[in-house]
Amino acid sequence: MTVDPRIAAVTGRIIERSRPTREVYLDRVRRAAEKGPNRSRLSCSNLAHGFAACGPTDKANLSDDVVPNLGIITSYNDMLSAHQPFETFPELIRKAAREAGGVAQVAGSVPAMCDGVTQGQPGMELSLFSRDVIALATAVGLSHDMFDAAVYLGVCDKIVPGLVIAALTFGHLPAVFIPAGPMTTGLPNDEKARVRQLYAEGKADRAMLLEAESKSYHGPGTCTFYGTANSNQMLMEIMGLHLPGASFINPNTPLRDALTVEATRRALAITALGNEFTPVGEMIDERSFVNGVVGLHATGGSTNHTIHLVAMARAAGIQLTWEDISDLSDAVPLLARVYPNGLADVNHFHAAGGMGFLISQLLKIGLVHEDVRTVWGKGLSSYAIDPRLGENGGVARVPSPETSADPKVLARADAPFQPNGGLKMLKGNLGKAVIKISAVKPDRHVIEAPARIFHDQSEMQTAFSAGELTGDFIAVVRFQGPKANGMPELHKLTPPLGVLQDRGQRVALVTDGRMSGASGKVPAAIHVTPEAKDGGPIARIREGDMIRLDAEAGTLEVLVDAAEFAARTPVMIDLAQYESGMGREIFDKFRAVAGTADMGASVLY
C-alpha cells in the first residue's frame, strides 16, 4: 500500500532526526535481549525467592527454565471504575498461561489516579507526574528479571503512557497491552454538559448536578466520552500493542474475557522461547508513532497526547515534535464524531464500526503505514476487523464492513467531517501552544480580544460568579505549567467560558496548563511553553493587552510593540499554595526538574 507523500515526508524527517538516539536505544535493547531473562543465572536463593509463592507446577516449570514466564503489571484498584475490572484479570491470565504451557506472575502494581475525581482539587497537581511514577514503579516490578514477556493492565489518562514508557525502557521484552473496556452508555454526554452549565449559572443545585454526574459515570469501565483514557485505547490498537479489536469491548462480558485469554497466549507466543520473538523496543518504531498520531487526528483525540506521545517516543530514542504532530494534522481528515466533538460516546463509535472501520479507511487513502510490526504478528491491515465471540467461546474476527453503521458518528475517508484533524500547534511571540479545534465552530477559530489575567482557575470562577466577565476577552491563566504546580487540567474553566460563549461573547483561553481530552467548544491555546514559572512570554502579558489567537494561521500573538514587550519584566508570584498538602511536598523535586511541555513535561527524559 502506498503511503501518502505528506505522511511519508513527516515519517522520514522523524527517522532522520532520531537516528543518533534511536541507534543507541536499539543497541541497548539488542544487548539486553541477547542476555535473556536472568532466571537461569540466579543463585538458588534468588530463584527460590522468585517463585516461593507459586504452586508446585509453576515452581517446577520455573526451576527448569524451559517455559516462558509472563510478568503482569497491573493498575488495579477498586475505587476507580476504569481499573476495577482488572481485579479478576490476573487469575484469568495465570490460568490461560498454564493452559498454554507457560507461567504468569504479577510482577508489580502501579498507582492509578483518576483525573475525574481530582479535577480542581490539590491532588490534580500530582496527576501529570503520576505518569513518570508509574514508569518508575513498573521498572521496579520488572527489575527482578524473571520474565520473558510482560502484559500491561492499564486504561486511563497517565497510566497507559507511563506503562508504555516503562515497556519501551524494557524494550528487550515483548509487551502486550490488555484493556478493560468502556462502561456501558449512561446519561448522554451533551445532557451532562448542559447540567454542568446550568450549575455554573446557578440554575441547577448540587443535588441535580450529582444526579446527572452519577448517571453518566455509573458502572465499571472507562468514562464513555472521548477523553484521554479512550484516546489511549485507540493509540494502543493503532500502534499494534493491543490485539485487533480489543479496545472498546465492555468489561465483564464473555468477549472481553476471551480477548484477555487470547492476549495472554499471544504474549507467550512472541517470547524468545518461541519462533516469533517480538521485543517491543524493536517492534515499535517511528512509523508506529506516526500511525498513533494519525489515529489521534482522525478521531479528534486528547490534547494530552501532544505531551504523552512525545515522552513515550523519547523512551524509544525517537524524537517526535509538536511540529510533526501539527503537520500530520493538516494531512489527516476527521473521521469520528465522539463527544466532546460530537454527541456519540465510544460505545456508539464501536457500534458504528469502531477501530476496524477507522483503520480500514485510513489504509485506503494511505494515511497510515501498513508495514509495521504488531503484537499480532501481522501488519496493520490485520486490524481492519470486527471482533466477535466465536462459537467455541474464543475470539472470531470478520473483515470490517465497507460502510459505517452510523455515518453521523464514523465517516468514510472520502466523506470526512472536516479535512483536517483539528489538533494544531500555535507559534508566535508567546511561544508555542497546542489547540484542538475539532469541536470549535469555524467562526471561533480566530479570536482577537483583550487579556483578562488570572493566576488560578478559581480566580476566574470568582470573577464569573461576580458578573465581572463582560464583553469579549481572552482569559490568560498562567503559572499552571509543570514547574509551577505540576500542570493540572483546568476543567473548572470550561463551564463558565461555555456559558459566556453561548451568550454571544467572543472568548478564548490561553494557559500554560492543560485541558485534556475534554477540550471542547471554546478555543483554548494550552500547554503554552515556555511556561510562566520559567519566565516565558506569557508572564509578560498585562491586563488589557490585545491577544490574537488564530487557529487557521497557526499563530498566537500578543499585539504589543516588540521592543516594549521584550523590555517588560516577567511577573513572578508566590507559589507556596501549590507546594504542600495532599502529597505535593514530596513532589518538589519533580517540579524542579520537569521538562517543558513540548518535550513531554517529563522528569525522566
UniProtKB/TrEMBL annotation:
Cofactor binding summary note: Binds 1 [4Fe-4S] cluster.
GO cellular component: cytosol
Secretion signal span: none
Enzyme type, top EC level: lyase
Every Dihydroxy-acid/6-phosphogluconate dehydratase N-terminal domain range: 68-381
Pathway linked to the protein: Carbohydrate metabolism; Entner-Doudoroff pathway
UniProt KW keywords: 4Fe-4S, Carbohydrate metabolism, Gluconate utilization, Iron, Iron-sulfur, Lyase, Metal-binding
Binding-site residues, [4Fe-4S] cluster: C156, C223
Name the UniProt record assigns to this protein: Phosphogluconate dehydratase
Originating species: Hoeflea marina
Taxonomy of the source species: Bacteria, Pseudomonadati, Pseudomonadota, Alphaproteobacteria, Hyphomicrobiales
